[in-house]
Design a protein that fits this description.
This protein is an alpha+beta fold and 373 residues long. It has 15 helices and nine strands.
Length: 373
C-alpha cells in the first residue's frame, strides 16, 4: 500500500460531499470510509494536522473503474461524475480550483470514451434545478457535445480535452443568470443585458484568477460568441479561433434541446434540421449533426406498433436506432422497458415525440436506469 498525505490531495476533498477515497490514520488503520463527509474546514484542518493518509491506488482507479464496470453500472457512474463536475465548476475560483476541476472532468471523459451513446443520452436529459445548478448542467451538456464533435472531426486527444474545458467554463461568470433566464418570461433588464454582453470577458477574468493561463483556452472563452461574419460579440471579430467556433455551435445546438419558460425544448430531429438550415455546409455543423443523428440516444419516439420508446443506442442503420419501449401500444406504462428492433417494419420509428408530450412518470432521474436495465 503506497500512501500519501491527505493534505497533498486536498483539492479532491469537498466539504459536505462524499469522500472519493478512504482516509487512514498514520498507522494505516481506517479513519474515514469512502463516502463519508467532512463537513467543516476545521475538521479538514484537524485531519491534516494528525497526518491523515490516503492510498495512492484509490486515487488512480476512476478511469479503470469506468472502463471495467458492467454496463448496468454506468448510469450510476454518470450521475456521480456529473454531480462532481457541477460541484467543482460552481466552487469559488481560488487555490485548488483548477486541480479540482481537472480531477472532476477526467471521469466524464472516460465515460464518453466507454460509451458515446450514453454520453449523448446525458446531453438530452440534463434537466433543470436551482439557478446555479441549471447553468452548470447546461455547461456540462455543451462540454460533452463539444468533446464528441471534436473527436468526430479527428482532433487530437489534447484538442478534444481542451474543447471540453472551454465549453465547460465559457459561461463561468453567468451560471446563476442562465438559470434565472430559463425561468424568466419578461424582457431582459438592463443589468441582465450588460451581464450577457460582458460574460465572455468576465469569464476569462475568473479563469485567470483561478490560475488558468492557457492562451488557447482563454482566447476561445473570450471568442465563444464571435462569428466569422463579424456579427458576434463582444468585439465583433471576424478572425475566430477553431475552438471558439466549435463550442459556439455546441452551445447553440444544446440550447435548442433545453426547455425554457418561454418555449419547449426542440425535438432532436428538428434541432438537427435547424442547425443545417442556419449553418449550411460548415464542417463543424455537419459533424455535430452526424454525431447526434436524427434519432440520438435519449430522444423519445413513437413506433409503428403504437408503443412509445426511448432511443438507447445508435443502430447500424441511421433510421433504425436501438430503443426501449416505455409503454405498450395503448400508452400503458410497462413495468420493464422492452427492447425493440426498429429495423423490423412492425416496430419501425414513425415519429420523434417532443419531451413536453411525455408523461412526467416516464421522465426524471430514473429514466436512464430504466432504459438500460
Amino acid at each position: 500500500m503506497q500512501l500519501a498525505q491527505l493534505a497533498s490531495v486536498q483539492h479532491r476533498v469537498h466539504l459536505g460531499a462524499p469522500l472519493p477515497f478512504n482516509v487512514r490514520h498514520a498507522d494505516k488503520t481506517l479513519l474515514l470510509a469512502r463516502g463519508q463527509q467532512v463537513e467543516t474546514n476545521e475538521q479538514l484542518q484537524a485531519l491534516f494536522e494528525r497526518g491523515a493518509l490516503v492510498d495512492m491506488a484509490e486515487l488512480q482507479t476512476a478511469r479503470e473503474e469506468i472502463l471495467k464496470a458492467p454496463r448496468e453500472e454506468l448510469p450510476g457512474l454518470w450521475n456521480r461524475s456529473l454531480a462532481e463536475v457541477s460541484r467543482s465548476l460552481v466552487a469559488k475560483p481560488g487555490q485548488g480550483y483548477v486541480a479540482a476541476l481537472e480531477d472532476a472532468t477526467r471521469p466524464v471523459q472516460s465515460l464518453i470514451e466507454r460509451d458515446p451513446d450514453l454520453a449523448v443520452f446525458q446531453v438530452l436529459h440534463q434537466g433543470g434545478g436551482a439557478d446555479m445548478a441549471y447553468g452548470a448542467k447546461r455547461s456540462v451538456q455543451c462540454a460533452i457535445t463539444a468533446y464528441l464533435v471534436a473527436q468526430r472531426l479527428a482532433w487530437t486527444a489534447e484538442q478534444s480535452t481542451l474543447a471540453f474545458k472551454v465549453a465547460l467554463t465559457m459561461n463561468l461568470s453567468m451560471l446563476e443568470l442562465q438559470g434565472q433566464l430559463a425561468r424568466q418570461t419578461s424582457l431582459l433588464t438592463r443589468d441582465q443585458r450588460v451581464a450577457l454582453r460582458d460574460h465572455p470577458e468576465n469569464s476569462v477574468r475568473m479563469l485567470e484568477l483561478a490560475g488558468i493561463h492557457h492562451a488557447d483556452w482563454l482566447r476561445a472563452v473570450l471568442e465563444h460568441h464571435e462569428q466569422e461574419d463579424g456579427g458576434g460579440y463582444p468585439a465583433g471579430k471576424t478572425a475566430v479561433c477553431e475552438l471558439a467556433s466549435l463550442v459556439r455551435r455546441a452551445d447553440i445546438y444544446t440550447a435548442k434541446l433545453s426547455t425554457r419558460a418561454t418555449r419547449d425544448a426542440l425535438a432532436a430531429d428538428m434541432a438537427g434540421r435547424q442547425m443545417f438550415m442556419q449553418d449550411p455546409g460548415h464542417p463543424m455543423t455537419t459533424a455535430l449533426v452526424k454525431e447526434f443523428g436524427i434519432y440520438p440516444p435519449g430522444c423519445f419516439v413513437r413506433l409503428a406498433s403504437g408503443e412509445l420508446a426511448v432511443v438507447i443506442g445508435r443502430g447500424e442503420i441511421i433510421t433504425a436506432p436501438m430503443v426501449a419501449c416505455l409503454t405498450d401500444a395503448h400508452d400503458r406504462p410497462v413495468s420493464t422497458p422492452l427492447q425493440r428492433c426498429t429495423a423490423d417494419r412492425a416496430h419501425a420509428v414513425v415519429a420523434v415525440v417532443g419531451q413536453s408530450a411525455i408523461p412526467a412518470r416516464l421522465q426524471g432521474d430514473k429514466l436512464l436506469e430504466l432504459a438500460f436495465a
